[in-house]
Design goal:
Strands 1-2-3 form a 3-stranded antiparallel sheet, with no helix packed on it. By secondary structure, it is of the alpha+beta class. It is elongated and about 60 Å long. The longest helix is centred in the first third of the chain and has 24 residues. The chain contains 1 helix and 3 strands.
């Protein structure tokens, strides 16, 4: 008798898939730790007159700097 959890699914494949996902996340963590953050970019997210500015690394995606403020130029 089979259960609904294992119908048509190879258990070994599920375990291997979880290991691959875990390995990819570990690689991403080490990439962020040892990245030199030489190439960065900045962008702003606006909410009415308030904004949040982010400075991120292009290589690893780590947020390096975060700034919140009020933009009076938008009022006109």
């Amino acid at each position: 008798m089979s259960s609904n959890l294992t119908d048509g699914i190879n258990l070994y494949y599920i375990i291997e898939l979880r290991n691959v996902v875990l390995l990819e996340s570990i690689i991403q963590i080490f990439r962020r730790i040892f990245c030199s953050h030489d190439d960065t970019f900045s962008f702003r997210v606006y909410n009415d007159f308030d904004f949040s500015e982010y400075n991120k690394c292009t290589k690893c995606g780590k947020t390096l700097d975060y700034f919140k403020g009020f933009d009076e130029d938008l009022r006109g």
